[in-house]
C-alpha cells in the first residue's frame, strides 16, 4: 500500500513539533491507521541543515512549487500569517491537495473564500489546530455534538490572557507586571496586542461559531474587548462577590440573531470554567440534547498544536484508506492492529494509599506502624491523628506510591498489632500528575 | 437522494429519547448532513399504540425479522441487556447492516466476537453512547487524540456513584442514606449493585482502555471495587488533608503491562476532576503530545444518551454520502448549508453587568444611582460598598441581564452625576446557565 505523502510548510515551533511527533509516535500512528505517513517535502524560506532531516525529505523555499508536486497528497501549512499562506493554500487546493492548517487568522479572515476553492476542487481544508490547540473542539462540534442544536459556546481560548488573569487573582498582581512576566516566559509575544486585546480569541471564536451554528465566517462582526483595562481591584471585588473574571469568547444564538463577543466576564466561582487556570484553555458548549459539556486542555505549544495537526492528517489518511480499500473509516477499537500487552493483576498495581487505623494507644502504635512501613521502604506523605472516637484514636496515614502486593503484606502485619482494633481501611490515592 | 433508513430496537428511556431527538432536531441535522434520516422500523416486545408513531414507521416484536429487511440501513440497538441484543446484532451484521448501540455490558463482555463479525461482513458497530453518555469520549480517543500515545485515563464514569459521593461530602451524609435518595430520584436502580459496586464503571473502562491502548476488550481483568464501604468519616478526613474521594475508572500503561482498575480514589481537591459533582461524568486523558485533556458532561439520561446515539448515526450518514457522492466526509464548516442568520451589533447584546463607580458621598449617590437603574427597569443583583480609597468610595453594583444599548444610556446618565469621579468601570457577567 502506498504511503500518504505530506509537504510540511513552515518549520517554526509548530512545524518542528509536527515533524517530531510524526517521528516519535510513528509506530503508534501506524498501528492506528495501518498505513505509512511519509514526509516528502519541507518548505522553509531558509534551508535548515541544522535539523538533520533524512535525505528522503526534499527542502525548498519555493512553496508554490512544492504544493504542485505529484508526490504530495496533503499540504500541511504551519507557517502562520496571512501571506503567503493564502496564496500557497489556494494553489494547493487548485492542484487537488488536501490542506491541513493551524492558521486561525487566515481562516477567520479569508476562510469563506478558501473553503469555496476547496469545495470547487473536491478537497478539504481541515483546521483542528486553529482553535484551542490540542483540544479536539472542532471535531467535537462538527461531529461529536452533531445531533444537537447548539445554543451557546463560552470558551477560554487564549492561554496568555488566562495566565495573566490567573496570576492577577492568585497573587493580587497588576496587569502590566504579569504581562511582562508572560513575555519573559515566552507565553506572550513582544507585541502582545493579539493576545491581550482579544484579537486572537476573536479569530478562534469566529471559527467556533461557524461550526456551531452553520454561518459564514464573520470576523469583522465580533465584538472584541481585551483584558488590558482589568485591574487587580476589580479582580478582588469580583472574588468577594463569589465570581472570577475570565476572558471569554462567547457565541450565542438568540431569537434576534447571533451574538459573537470576546470580553472579560465575571462568572460564578463554582463553575468548572472559573477553575481553569494558567495557560490552559477550555470550551463550554450548551446544546439542546446533551446539555452542557466542557472540553479542557493545552491551547498552545508545540506538542499540543502538533497533536491537533496530526489528528487532521490521520483523518485524511483514514479517508484515503476508506476510498481505496472500502474498509470502515475508523477501526472499531481505534487501532488496525490490537496488541497483546498483558493486563496486570491488582497485586502488581502501584498507587499511593490512604490508611485509617483505630488504635488503643496512639503513641506506641505510631512507632510500631511507622517502623513497619519504613522497614518495607514505604514513604509516608502525611500522618494525621484524629480526635478520640468511641475510646479509640483514628490515625490516618497517606503513603507514597507502592505496589499492592507489598502494601498487602504490610497491612497484614499492622493489622496483627494488638493495639489495632477493627479492620484497617485503605483507599487508593492518585495525584493525576503527568 | 435516498434517505438513510433506521430500525430502532427498544423504546425505553434511550429509544424514546432517540425518536424524540431525531424529530426535534430534524431540520438542524438535515442542514448538517444534507440527507434525510428516516425511521422505517421500531422494534418492541409489546406494540406501543400510545406513542402515536407516524403510520410510515412499522412496529414489530420480531427483532430478528426487522434487521433482515431491505429497507433498513442502520440498526440502532437501545434495548440494553446481553440477550437478545447479542443475537439481534449478530443477525444485523450478517445482513450487512451498520449497527449503533449504547450497550456497554454487551460490548465489554462480548465485543471482541461482535466486532469480528462486523469486520467479516465489512460493516461497523459504533458505540459512542456506551461510555460517559453524551460526552463524545470515544470519538475523542479514536480520532481527536489519534496522534498521541495515550499514557493513562482516569474517569468519573458512573453518575450515580458520583452523586452519592458528592452528597456524602457536601452534607456529611452516610452512604446508605444517600443511596436511598438516589433510588427515589431515579438515579439508581432498585438493585444498585451495578452502580455502587463498580460493575457499570468497569464495563465502560474496558471499552475506553481498548480504544486508548489498542488491546482486546478484557472486562474480566478489571480490578473492581465499589463505593459501598466508603464512610462519611473517611470523606471528611480526606477533605481535611486536601483531597476528595471520587470513584474512578483508571487505565494506565506501565512498563510491566496495563492497569485496569475501578475504585474509590483520593485525588487533590484542586484538580478539575475533583470538582465534577453530582451525576456528571468527566474523563481525564493523559497523552504524550497534548498532555492532559479533560472531557465533561452528562453521563446518562435520555437526551445525553440520544445525543451520542444520533451522532453515531450522523457519522454513518456522512460515510454513506461520501461513498455515494464522493463529497468530503464532513462539511468544512460543519453544515452542508450555511444560514444567513444576522450577527448582532454589540448594542443589541444582553448580559448582566458589574459596574464600579467612585463616589464622593455614597449615601446620596446610592439613591441617585439606584433610581436611575430602577427607572430604566434594570434589576440589581448585588450592591457592595468598599472601604474608602483615596478619598473616594468605590461602589460595586451587579445588575440582572440588560441589553447593552439601555446600559449605555443609563451609564451616561450615571456618569454625568456630579458625585461620580473618574470613568465608570463595567464588565459583563455570565451565569453560564442553561
UniProtKB/TrEMBL annotation, chains A, B:
An annotated Gene Ontology molecular function: homoserine dehydrogenase activity
GO biological process, alphabetically ordered: methionine biosynthetic process; threonine biosynthetic process
Binding site for L-homoserine: 189
Pfam families the UniProt entry points to: ACT, Homoserine_dh, NAD_binding_3
Alphabetized UniProt keyword annotations: Amino-acid biosynthesis, Methionine biosynthesis, NADP, Oxidoreductase, Threonine biosynthesis
Pathway entry: Amino-acid biosynthesis; L-threonine biosynthesis; L-threonine from L-aspartate: step 3/5; Amino-acid biosynthesis; L-methionine biosynthesis via de novo pathway; L-homoserine from L-aspartate: step 3/3
Keyword NADP: yes
Residues given in the record as NADPH binding sites: 104
Gene3D superfamilies: 3.30.70.260, Dihydrodipicolinate Reductase, domain 2, NAD(P)-binding Rossmann-like Domain
Active site: residue positions: 204 (proton donor)
Known EC number: 1.1.1.3
Ranges where the ACT domain occurs: 354-434
Positions with a binding annotation for NADP(+): 9-16
Reactions it catalyzes: L-homoserine + NAD(+) = L-aspartate 4-semialdehyde + NADH + H(+)
Keyword Oxidoreductase: yes
Top-level EC class as recorded in UniProt: oxidoreductase
Similarity comment: Belongs to the homoserine dehydrogenase family.
Protein name: Homoserine dehydrogenase
Organism: Acinetobacter larvae
